[in-house]
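Appendix B.2, paired examples.
Example (i):
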Amino acid sequence: MNAAIDVLSPNRVISKQTVRWLVGFQLLMLFCIWLFSSTVFLPKPIEVFHALGQMWVEGLGAELITSFYLNLQAIALSTLLSLVLAYLTVIPFFRPIVSLLSKLRFLSMVGLTFFFTLMATTGHELKLYLLVFSVSVFFVTGMAEVVASIPKEKFDLARTLRMGEWRVVWEVVVLGQTDKAFEVLRQNAAMGWMMLTMVEGISRSEGGVGAMLLNQNKHFHLSAVFAIQLTILVLGLAQDYGIGLLRKIFCPYAGLTLERT
């Protein structure tokens, strides 16, 4: 009874077991709503799973590998580019440049596609450039905020240990914020999956799950659309879990910090 009251009360701390029960109950409730929904535009679970099996026979697995490889490349390049730019904000000369790049997140891809098409030599490069841009403008914004929010006391502490300024940057900004860099990566990596359908629709030479999704949506095969979307969701959740696992491996101290705060 007390657990039920805590779940419905503001600012209460609940146990991990209660969280598991709560998540399981809500998932079951959503599944029942999906199962008994009378909306004609929402295919039934059995139709979706039947479409998933059919799409898998038609090559959904191979298309997922193609899209996952593309997204992995985009995340790697975006991470490298964004981290370098964010760390460079410790130098005053680069702060206006990074600030300007962060403002580009408001731009639409419609006007930029032609620009990236001129830069790319293949369809794969075009898709990669579009994904890298889409993720980087948000990634660099988040990381620049992380760097800017580092307390001045941490820099002063490093200087009292007779570290040079570049050593201070390495210890305080780069190594000291690794756990937050993983968290920003985790938050922005999902952007690649959101943009995947658009970029694979622009260049369909390599196929991909986004191109397959557009084809099914064009012919109004809703069960197939839901099957592909659920597959992307599962793969995206696995990616999110993987990044979180890497954060725990490389930054085991992060969890201890959160518990103390």
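Example (ii):
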Amino acid sequence: MTDIRVFGGPTTLIEFGGLRFLTDPTFDEPGDYPLGGGRFLTKTAPSTIDPAELPPIDVVLLSHDQHPDNLDRAGRELLTRVPLTLTTPAGASRLAGTVRGLAPGESVTIEDVTVTAVPARHGPEGCEAVTGEVIGFVLTGDGLPTTYVSGDNASLEIVREVADRFGPVGTAVLFAGAARSGLFDNALLTLDSAQAAEAAKILGAAKVVPVHCDGWAHFTEGRDKIVEAFTNAGVGDKL
């Protein structure tokens, strides 16, 4: 059984194999958050939980550290209080404390759960020099339903790679929202709703939890659009 609570943006509590995993912690108040170079992202809604209200977290799954909608000031403070954070090798080199970098394909086992880093591409092909390293995660364990956390990924080809190795999955936590920021001629930086529905089919997912689709101005498709797309694709019962 995988129990999941969504707190807004990409921040999700996953209880799996007796452990608590928190994805991409973001708890700062609404406002403008700089990206550098005069660019910024606008947060439009607060988190639905104060970090002080969280239960003890065993592991943070941080898809990437370089964007404030995936790791903010309050999230960085939380990292200092958790036993382990898993993220990209580049992110681990920038973050202090109990942070470990995983390249795609690398795994770490914590008690009865194995966490494997999988690829993610935060935009169109060739975007990495601009958007930076990003990873997703797959959680597995004996007798446990495989859980996939996509991270900020805009590539269905990568979803197929994950499905080929790990599918079918029990739960897919899909970072959707059709994020766009003006980069790459306004190309998608994450899956849009129709792609998320297709990803659910590719993965053979029994359950899909859409995240990264509310709380920020550059998320251009919200939950209503996701429900519509999944319903139209015949997988509305997966949500």
